[in-house]
Specification:
This protein is of the alpha+beta class. The chain contains one helix and five strands; from the N terminus they run H-E-E-E-E-E. It has a five-stranded antiparallel β-sheet with strand order 1-2-3-4-5, with no helix packed on it.
C-alpha cells in the first residue's frame, strides 16, 4: 500500500512539473495590441434606471423611487430628525418602516389566565 501511494505521489509531482510544457502557446499565436472594451448594452432592452420624484407633504420632504412606473421605496425627511425609508417586502404587501431604529416587536405570550 505504501509503494502504491508513493508511486501515485510521484506521478502527480511529475505531471505538475510537466504541465507548463503541455500548456505552452502554439507557435503561430499572435498577441493582440489592445483588447476592445465590452459592449455597453447587451442585445435586447436597455436597462431601466429608477426615477426619483420629489414632493412635499406638509413639512415633510418625500422622495418616491419608482421603476417601470411602480413605486418600490419612499424616503421621508421630517423637518427635525433623521430620514427614514418605507419599502415593500413584496408586491402586494403593506409598506414597512425601515428607519433609524426599527420598530420594537414585542412577543405577546399568554403566561397566566384568571
Amino acid at each position: 500500500m505504501r509503494d502504491f501511494s508513493r508511486l501515485l505521489l510521484a506521478g502527480i509531482c511529475i505531471a505538475a512539473i510537466a504541465m507548463p510544457v503541455w500548456a505552452a502557446a502554439p507557435k503561430d499565436a499572435e498577441l493582440l495590441e489592445e483588447v476592445p472594451p465590452p459592449p455597453k448594452v447587451i442585445e435586447g432592452q436597455p436597462i431601466d434606471q429608477p426615477s426619483v420624484n420629489k414632493r412635499k407633504d406638509g413639512e415633510n420632504d418625500i422622495e418616491e423611487y419608482s421603476l417601470n412606473g411602480e413605486v418600490y421605496m419612499v424616503k421621508v425627511t421630517p423637518p427635525s430628525g433623521k430620514s427614514y425609508y418605507l419599502h415593500r417586502e413584496d408586491r402586494n404587501g403593506d409598506w414597512v418602516h425601515d428607519g433609524p431604529t426599527r420598530p420594537l416587536s414585542v412577543p405577546k405570550w399568554i403566561l397566566f389566565r384568571f
